[in-house]
Amino acid sequence: MKKRSNLSVSVAMISIFLIMTLLLGGCIQEPLGVDYSKAENWAYLPVGEAVTKNCDVFFVAPTVYLGTADSHSMDLGDEQTKAQFLGATNMEKGLYADDANFFAPYYRQAALNAYTMDRSQSDQYFDLAYADVSKAFDQYIKDYNQGRPFVLAGFSQGSEMLLRLMAEKFADPALSDQLVAAYLIGWRVTPEDLSNYPFLKMAQHSGDTGVIISFNSEAEGIQSSLIVPDKTLGINPLNWRTDSSPAVASENSGAVFTDYSGAIVKEVPNLTGAYLDPDRGTLRVTGVNPADFPPVLDIFQEGVYHLYDYQFFYRNLQANVKERIGNYIK
């Protein structure tokens, strides 16, 4: 009897331990996802009197978390990384905030080191990031949008997440009809994407709406990169052509280099020209020396201008956002 009693106690203790472990583990791992009804989970969440425009932008930030040997997803409790996330958001915010209410969720983005992993290992980290973005967007539509037209905007991983969001949700006309445009910059949009999701449409000129604006900047001579291994679709942000017609530097209204506060550090009119590569579909940037604009990240070779996609064409993009919003509202 005594042994049976001890065994019963042991089983009970183990059961309690397992339950507590699951509960605590659940708190840590957030199996239900991030609660986007809480303002703390948004980098920007305009509500009430802060909503002053008749159009919104839903912005998804690029990769800022580098990761460690044991960590491949951004921890939303890491205030230092959240500050970098906010800074990266601020660098692009000025393109959109003059013409739209600016919404931007924090999300458990995949770390930079996940891009160097085999897909069988890394998919779980990108799936987690997407789950957050999808949930944040659903919360935005449900509680904050109030039926206004909206722009989708992202950069790098942010654009990757938004392309996935559009593929999953935008076959619904009720949603796609609200879309002014999707600025999916710094990520590939392939012919296969359009074939698989025929409701996705690429921009054809400067003023069409309900379309995807995308490009990936690189020097002449680059034949492959992590972002564009082989082919992408795009548009030239200087002349708004989808063929290889070159735009000269005088068509570049201003390259703008911003800091983490969003303040302009340097502005250079007429810095670059550009044309779309007829084979790769990437944006070949002319008039600058690759050595003067290093890739910074070792996952890119010299001549991949990924980090400068927004900066090189800042003023042209800013004017284009205004044009497309104006066309939609008219």
Task: Explain the overall architecture.
The protein starts with a helix and ends with a helix. It has 330 residues and is an alpha/beta fold. It is 34% helix and 15% strand. It is built from eight helices and eleven strands. The chain has helices spanning 2-29, 79-93, 119-144, 157-169, 173-176, 191-196, 309-312, 314-329, and strands at residues 42-44, 56-60, 101-105, 150-155, 179-185, 211-213, 217-218, 255-258, 264-268, 273-276, 283-286. Helix 3 packs across helix 4 (157-169).
Key features of this structure:
single chain; 330 residues; alpha/beta; 34% helix; disordered N terminus
What's the SSE blueprint?
Elements (H helix, E strand, L loop, with lengths): L1 H28 L12 E3 L11 E5 L18 H15 L7 E5 L13 H26 L5 E6 L1 H13 L3 H4 L2 E7 L5 H6 L14 E3 L3 E2 L36 E4 L5 E5 L4 E4 L6 E4 L22 H4 L1 H16 L1
Parallel strand pairs: 2-3, 2-4, 4-5, 5-6, 7-11
Antiparallel strand pairs: 1-3, 8-9, 10-11
